Structure formats: structure tokens, C-alpha cells
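Hi support team,

I submitted a single chain yesterday and got back a structure, but I'm not sure I'm reading the C-alpha cell output correctly. Could someone confirm the output below corresponds to the sequence I sent? I've pasted both exactly as they appear in my results page.

Thanks,
R.
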Amino acid sequence: MTVTIGRQIGNRLGQCIDVMEGADGECLGRYLRIRVRLDVTKPLRRVMKLQFDHSLEAVIEFKYERLPDFCYACGRIGHVVKECKVVGAIEKEAKEKPYGSWLHSKFEVGRGRTISPRK
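Hi R., thanks for writing in. Yes, this is the structure output for that exact sequence:
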């Protein structure tokens, strides 16, 4: 993917601030790292469909770095499931939630180094 596509994705998520790119101007590996200013009153985006032309469509799954606690039921930052006022009791008690810890990125890249999660 290109930086241009990265900016388009970032602007669909919120306000694109930066797209990390390699020396050749392309994005790094199979991941695209985009810094975005998000509206935290809205649910986190889990996936996005992109259509490149009439026959090619891609589904992108998102992961977030430095993600604080958020509600696995409604996807909003600022509270957890047991404090959620957005969804009802049935959704709170459901075993499978639409959001989860899988939205946390396992790795953070910053200042030229890779940081692996603590074990």
C-alpha cells in the first residue's frame, strides 16, 4: 500500500496526522501504521472495507497502539463493560463481545526501535 492510501484510510477513521513509510515511499511490510486523531465519543472501528476498483475489494482489520481501557460491549473509550450505559444488560452479559483485547496492538514502534509487550 502507498502513503496516499494510508492517508485516505486515516481520514476515514478520523483526522490523519501521519503515515509511517519506508525509504522507498511505500508502507512497511504487511502492516500500515497510521497516526490518527480519533473522536473518542464514537466506537472504535474494528474493520473497514476498501474498494480499489470495480473488481478488487479489501477488508482491513485495525489494531490500536497505546489504547486505554475501553468497553468491549460498545467499543467506546472511557468506561468498561460493567459501567456501560450504552448497551443493555443482555449485551453486557453476552460471552462474545463485539470488541476485545484483540484491538490492542502487540507491538509499538517509536523512536527507531521496536518494543515488545511485557510478559
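A quick pointer for reading it: Strands lie at 15-19, 34-37, 47-51, 57-61, 108-110, 113-115. Let us know if anything else looks off.

Best,
Support desk
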